[in-house]
Structures are given as C-alpha cells and as structure tokens.
Design a protein that fits this description.
With about 350 residues, this protein is an alpha/beta fold. It folds into two domains: about 130 residues, Up-down Bundle (Four Helix Bundle (Hemerythrin (Met), subunit A)); about 190 residues, Rossmann fold. The chain has ten helices and 15 strands. The chain has a seven-stranded mixed β-sheet, sandwiched between helices. Helix 1 runs antiparallel to helix 2, helix 2 runs antiparallel to helix 5 and helix 5 crosses helix 6. The protein is globular and about 65 Å long.
Amino acid sequence: MNAPKFEMPTLTHQSVLLEADRVRILDRRVFPFQTLFVDCQTVEDVARAIEQMVTQSGGPFYAASAGMVLAARMAQGLGPQARRDMMQAAASRLIATRHTNNLIANGVGAMMAEAESRMADADFAAGMETAMYAVWEISRARSRQLGEHAATLIQDGDTVLTHCWGECAIIEPLAAALRAGKRIKVICTETRPYLQGSRLTAHSIAEMGIDVTVITDNMGAWAMDRGRVSRLMTAADRVTMSGHVVNKVGTLQLALAAHAYGIPFAAMVQDPDRKAPGPQDVPMEDRDPNESLHCLGHRTASPLAHGWYPAFDITPPHLVTSIVTSKGVFQADQMEQHYVQ
C-alpha cells in the first residue's frame, strides 16, 4: 500500500518566531479562527504570554528558549558575571511560568548550560541564538523517534481517542502511522475550558487529512461503550519514574473508562522525569478558578457559582497500558529499569 501524502499541521512549525528585536508567539487562544501573533520584546513579555496561555503544550518550550535569547541580547554588552546574573534571572522567571510540564525547565536548562559555556564569548547573543535552534532540533528529533515507536501500537483501521493538545507527542505518531500506510480516525475531546482539543488538536489532525470527530468532555466513556474507540493515546506533561502519568485534567477519567472497557491506553512523553521518583515530586498547577467559569472569553456559569481549576491530574500506572518515549515502548512499571536516575 502506498503511503498517503500529507503535510505537517500549522501548529507544529512557525508558532514561535525569533526575530531581530522580538519573539513572536502564535496566539493559540484564538487559533484557528484567527491567526494572530503576540509580540514579546522582553523576557517578562515571554513569561506573561506563557502564563496567560498564549501558547500551550510544547509551545512554551520554544517560547521560553527563545526568551533566553532575548536575555542574551540584553546581556551582550555586560561582563561575564553580570551576564551570568542576567541569564540566571531570566531562567528563573521563565521556569516559574508553568511548573507541572517540565519541558520549559528542560529547554531553559539546556539554554543555561550553553550560556555557561559561552559567558566570555564576544558574540554571546549570536552564539545563544545558534544554541536555541540546536536545542529545538534535538527536541524535534526526539519527538520523531517517539512518533515512530508509538506508531507501532496503532493498527490499520484504528480510531484513536485523544485528549487536549499534545503537540508533536500526538502528531508525530499519527504522521508515522500515515507513512506506514495505516488508515486512522481520531476522536478529540473538546477539552474545557480552553477547548484545545476541539480547536488545536482537531484542526491539526484534519490538516493531515485524517478523519477527526470532536466530542464533549463527558462523552468519552459512552464512545468506548458504543465501540467507537480502539485505543486511547494522549501526551503526558510529565511521567514519573514510578510510571504515574501527569497530564491535562480529564486524562484520569478517560483512563479509568478505558481500563473498564479493556481499551489500551498509551501515554507519550519524550522521556520520563528522572528527578521525579513519584507523583509527590511533581508540582501540580492550580489555575485561576474563574477560568472554569468562562469559555473563549464568555462567562458560561451562573454568577452565583464558584469555580475550581486543577490544570492537571495524575493517572496511576495500573491504568496505563504503555508509556512511549523517544527510546521505545515500555510498561509503566519499567521506567526505572530503562532510565537510570
């Protein structure tokens, strides 16, 4: 069978642009209805954009590492110690933006390591820009490796249920499956309150030529009961060495339903967090409760009601069929065997 031709979706490239005097970040709060960019001229601008959900999933990794280049440009005329102080301050600010997903910390950490090796360079800022693109390419290569491994789990004719916007962790497996000539359908949960599933995931998958259906967040178990789902596949914001999966809130309830119906659940992450032995070691983000009372800028709840918005939940390893990383496909309880802390 000849593999169908397809293009990678808009959101997986050129959503963060480094320019001569700024970082431009695609505003995923309004995409695909509008294609707008938020211009960030300082590290603080980048940090606020991340905090305000201008970019989500893997986007903050690219934005934060680009923010480190802005800091390097500001530090260009300083001596080594002053440069170090400015870069460390920038790194601390960016890492603090969203702390549950550790991609930001990984990307900023890689940039800070590069900065330490270049502190005395005359072309410090130019060197940091080169380093940023190298860090980006390493991450993309790991995502492609993850995708090849995850695609081995997808069978021809599968209908995959996914949750939230998993960036390349969901796009690369689907792309690899398409290259292998597999026919796939995807069901996306809408993912309240920002609707990443119905706006970002569904649009990106449709751009690849894949049949995609959007369901509301309360339909997952019934879709499984009706035989509409072959497998559950989501990204993971973080996976601990104990095999616990930390991901967008709502993942746990889908994993419970999949377990009840005997549907395999694969969680996908570039690598588990060697510094997190268990879920107690992952800082969990609670966002502004008012966000649960609104959707796309409109209040949807009674003015008499209160909100609660835990941004992530934790799925225990006994509900996870497999964890897919850039190294391969593993059982959830095998992390410590394959990743030395």
